[in-house]
Design a protein that fits this description.
9-stranded mixed sheet, globular, 32% strand
C-alpha cells in the first residue's frame, strides 16, 4: 500500500520543515503546496501555522490558496490544522480585528487573559476529555507541546475532541467528519505527536 499523499500548505510562514519530517516519520508522503493547481490528487491537506492570524490570512490570499483551502475544508475532505491552521478555521480572532477567518467552523479566537500565568502558553500540558480518531489508543491524559497566546472558542461544543487547562479550560482540538485541528504542535510533541499523526493517516 502506498503512502498517503498529504499537501502541506506553504503560504510563507509556519514550521514547515519539522511538520514535513514528522509526517514522513509517521508514514506519509508530504508535498509542499504553493498554488491551487498543486492540490489535485491529494489524500489530505495539512495547514500548519506559526505567527499572526492576519499575516497568515493575508499570505493565503496573496498566494491564491485562501478559497481553495476554504472549499477543501468546507467540503468534507480530509484536513489537519495545526496551531494557526486550527485558528483560521473560525470566523474571527481577537488578535486581528476586522480580518475574517475561513469561517468553516462557527466561533471565534480569543486571547488568554492577563494574570498570574505567562502568555504565551508555552511548553508541555496535559490534554483531557479526548475523543475521536486522532486519540485512538491514547491514555486518559497525555501531554502535548503548546506555543500560543490565543485559542478558539467553538460555537458548537459537539465538535470538541480535546480540552486543556491553562488558567481557564480551552478547546485544544476539534473534529468534524474528516476535518481535524489541534492547538498544540504534534511535530514538537515527540512520541505522542507522532502517534496522533499516524492516527490521522489511518483515517484516510
Amino acid at each position: 500500500m502506498s503512502s498517503p499523499i498529504l499537501g502541506v500548505i506553504d503560504y510563507g510562514s509556519g514550521n514547515l520543515r519539522s511538520v514535513c519530517k514528522a509526517l514522513e516519520a509517521s508514514g506519509a508522503s508530504p508535498r509542499l503546496i504553493t498554488s491551487a493547481s498543486e492540490m489535485s490528487g491529494l489524500d489530505a491537506i495539512v495547514v500548519p501555522g506559526v505567527g499572526a492570524f492576519a499575516h497568515c490570512a493575508e499570505n493565503l490570499r496573496a498566494t491564491g490558496l485562501w478559497e481553495p483551502v476554504r472549499e477543501w475544508a468546507a467540503s468534507g475532505k480530509s484536513y489537519l490544522g495545526i496551531c494557526l491552521g486550527y485558528q483560521l478555521l473560525f470566523e474571527s480572532s481577537e488578535e486581528s480585528p476586522g480580518i475574517e477567518g475561513l469561517g468553516v467552523l462557527p466561533g471565534r479566537v480569543v486571547r488568554f487573559a492577563a494574570g498570574d500565568l505567562k502568555v504565551p502558553h508555552m511548553g508541555w500540558n496535559s490534554l483531557r476529555d479526548t475523543a475521536g480518531p486522532l486519540y485512538k489508543g491514547f491514555p486518559a491524559e497525555v501531554s502535548m507541546y503548546f506555543v500560543h497566546s490565543y485559542y478558539p472558542v467553538p460555537a458548537d461544543e459537539d465538535i470538541l475532541s480535546a480540552q486543556c487547562d491553562y488558567g481557564v479550560p480551552f478547546a485544544a482540538g476539534v473534529s468534524r467528519g474528516a476535518l481535524h485541528a489541534v492547538q498544540f504542535h504534534p511535530e514538537k510533541s515527540q512520541a505522542a505527536g507522532l502517534a496522533l499523526l499516524r492516527n490521522f493517516l489511518s483515517t484516510l
